[in-house]
Amino acid sequence: MKRVVIEGGISRDHLVTAPLGAIFDQPGGPGLYASIAAAATGRALSGGDPTTLAVELWANLPMADLDIRAELERRGVDLSHCVDEQALPNLWILNSAEGRRIVNTAVQGGYELNESDTFTERTNPSVDSAAINRSATILRSSPRQALTDSIDETQVLVDPDQREVAARGWEYFAALATSTTVFTPSRLQLSQLGPDVIAVANELRHRTGVSVVARLDAEGSLVLPAQGGQWRVWAQDVEVVDTTGAGDTHAGALAAALAYPSLTIRSDVPRLVQATIVATCVVAHNLKGLGMTSLAPNFSLTRHALDAIFLEGN
């Protein structure tokens, strides 16, 4: 059985989406969205076979949060590597046409308005030699440092930490490159390094020698395999209700598709491009509802849906 290891945090979110309204106390966080997407993608690719792909979540997830644990287990996510060390953070996630803000529900210093709002640091377990030695496909959300073990045949995807990108710039990516096989930066993270995000994505591949799948919002994904070439993958006429967790969903689905042993979406493009087609299809489906509600456990990847994903490049 192939394994996908998700290293990422969990939170409880109040989702406020203009002009639709709000839903409160929703399970959220990169670890949740990515692991749910990975599990759903694995089942969809295997025709529902639960023995093809196993998804492990490495996160701080208190035993008291029974609803989140039950939801993840219902979707086939292995929680045996989660730790119970701290209460989950509670966040406001505010979405509008002007952009997105994530705000801690706990006010800082007694003030309602505080532009220096910071998030309480949460400790999540880091993947270790045991995970690496099992040749798992690993997705690391917002890591601060590289893995210390040699990754050898292990695939390691990194969704960068925008705070680290802001503080350390190119040096942050250089430090992670030694234990990374695919960087999955967002448009925002790329824009922290320069105004032309396409040029920055290409520069990231050039500087590190690592494959890049750049998530460019409505423009889809730019896929830059380490071996060379450039492809753009996107979906058209997508119904968008809520974008919360879209990037994490994409990363989780991408990891699962790369881990899947017999991925044959398109025989004329590299495996990384095929996996991005799958991830794009999964995200297009997830955007139709609030939070994680659209990605049901019985989610399926139809040939019609996959063929509707646009691809250009060489």
Question: Can you tag this structure with a few keywords?
Answer:
314 residues, alpha/beta, UDP-N-acetylmuramoyl-L-alanine:D-glutamate ligase, 10-stranded mixed sheet, 14 strands, 31% helix, globular
Describe this structure in words.
It comes from Jonesiaceae bacterium BS-20. This is PfkB family carbohydrate kinase. GO terms for molecular function: kinase activity. With 314 residues, this protein is an alpha/beta fold. It has a single domain, classed as Ribokinase (UDP-N-acetylmuramoyl-L-alanine:D-glutamate ligase, 3-Layer(aba) Sandwich), CATH 3.40.1190.20. It contains 10 helices and 14 strands. The strands form 2 sheets. It has a 10-stranded mixed sheet, with helices on both faces. Strands 3-2-6-7 form a 4-stranded mixed sheet. Strand 11 and strand 12 form a beta hairpin. Helix 1 crosses helix 8. The protein is globular and about 45 Å long. About 3% of the residues have low confidence.
Multimeric organization: single chain
CATH H level, superfamily name: Ribokinase
What fold name stands as the CATH topology? UDP-N-acetylmuramoyl-L-alanine:D-glutamate ligase
Strand content: 15-25%
Rg value: 18 Å
CATH class (first level) name = Alpha Beta
Please list the strands of the largest sheet in the order they lie side by side.
5-4-1-8-9-10-11-12-13-14
The number of distinct helices, counting runs of at least 4 residues, comes to 10
Unreliable stretches (pLDDT < 50, length at least 5) are: 113-121
Tell me the overall shape.
globular
Largest β sheet strand count, sense and barrel closure = 10 strands, mixed
Global structural class? alpha/beta
The total domain count is 1
The assigned CATH architecture is 3-Layer(aba) Sandwich
Summarize the helix and strand pattern as letters: EEEHEHEEEHEEHHEHHEEEHHHE
Helix percent band: 25-40%
What is the overall pLDDT average?
Answer: 89
N- to C-terminal distance: 32 Å
Pfam family, one: PfkB
Keywords: Kinase, Transferase
Protein name: PfkB family carbohydrate kinase
GO molecular function: kinase activity
